[in-house]
Amino acid sequence: MQAFARLRQHPNLPLIGFLFSAIFWGGLSGFSGLSVAMKLLIPGVELAGEYLSFGRFRTIHTHVVLLGFAVSIIFAGIYHSMPALLRTSMYSRKLGLIHVIMYNAVVLAGTVSFALGINQGKEYAEMEWPFDIAFIVMWIVFAVNFFGTIAIRKEKHFYVSIWFYLGFVVTVPIMFAINNLAVPVTLWKSYSLYAGSTDANIQWWYGHNGVAFILTTPFLGLLYYYLPKQIQSPVYSHRFSIIHFWSLIFFYVWAGPHHLLYSPLPEWVQMLGMAFSVMLILPSWLGIFNGFLTLTHAKRRVVYDPIVKFIVIAMSFYLVTTMEGSLLAIKSINARLHYTDWMIAHVHAGGLGWVSGISFAMLYYIVPRLVKKPLYSMELADTHAWMTFLAAFLYAAAIWLSGIGEGTIWSTLSYDRETKQLIPLNWGHLAELLAIFRQVRSIAGAIFMTGYALLLYNLMRTVFGGERD
Question: Which Gene3D superfamilies match (predicted)?
Fold first, then answer.
């Protein structure tokens, strides 16, 4: 209880709030994802009738992963690293606390609304208009605190992490607001201001940049801060990191149309999205190579330091997923794989490997320093790192193979020249063929959540217990 009292009195209480938020939403993210995966294997099982049906629970899963777990980790990283990088405290502790409360209220309201069937049907943007407005107001509160801290800084030089944070803070509310422009008809129902291919184009401009400016850009900022801090060595090349930032954000904002290849979207728009998506491989790999070159200053730490191990896992999966994303934007590859399980594997390799790797490293780094005690068990953290790697690898490998199988089977569709119709597939037979891969996915999810339980236990013993004998 004394440790809890010290946390409440901490001058950076907003940081502690976002750490608790990340742990809570992270747990719900994993539980909902594993439940949805099991639902595909045992479709007759009902958790709560219509309220947690597959469609609603899957929406809850994506919502709490993106706007719950990932965003709360980013906010925690910003509140922790900015004071050190700018040599000043955060602009307003009170604004920070308001930010924590508003943020969790919006994410919770969205989660409950999806269970009730209130959903505007846009990927990563399912919340209805009252919650969208609340989200923007919350972001304004955060932005005032963020830019206020920059205004009172004592360190004039911007380390590269601040640039990546700036990209996150400025871009997310703009694309969120533009994509969610709608005409309300009731308190819980609205219709998009756009229609047809325009609506689709704007949605995937937002959807892809949600990946870019939530799951990528700010996490790169966290990588550039926590890797050098943990190994006590500067980033290999600050010049590389600045080139990485500006080229990444320039290429990313044009890449959204690759989600709409072979659609009614104008051909030149599709080709523009494809070209910029392929070029994204250059800044993406430049940044990660900068990270690996930084690590050469302390490469032996990979053997015994679980935080460094998590960062290596994250960077490795980032290399794979960025290459994969660029390849999937090529029309011939996209035609075979885009609507298959391969896309699910692509997203989860990034989520379970890249995002979770950075997030867990950050949690293991921050929490012991907040309570001024060593981590309860480095061995448990090391076990967690290996379980995370195994889970991410098994998940991605199984669903990659499942996607290849789906694409191959779909490509064998027969065409009846007399009726001028496709001869339909036996979808039940297809599901049976792919069941083994989905079983492996569920096993991987269970391994991941077991590792997450180790994280919770380790952090709780660190905060509330004594040092391990």
Answer: Cytochrome c oxidase-like, subunit I domain
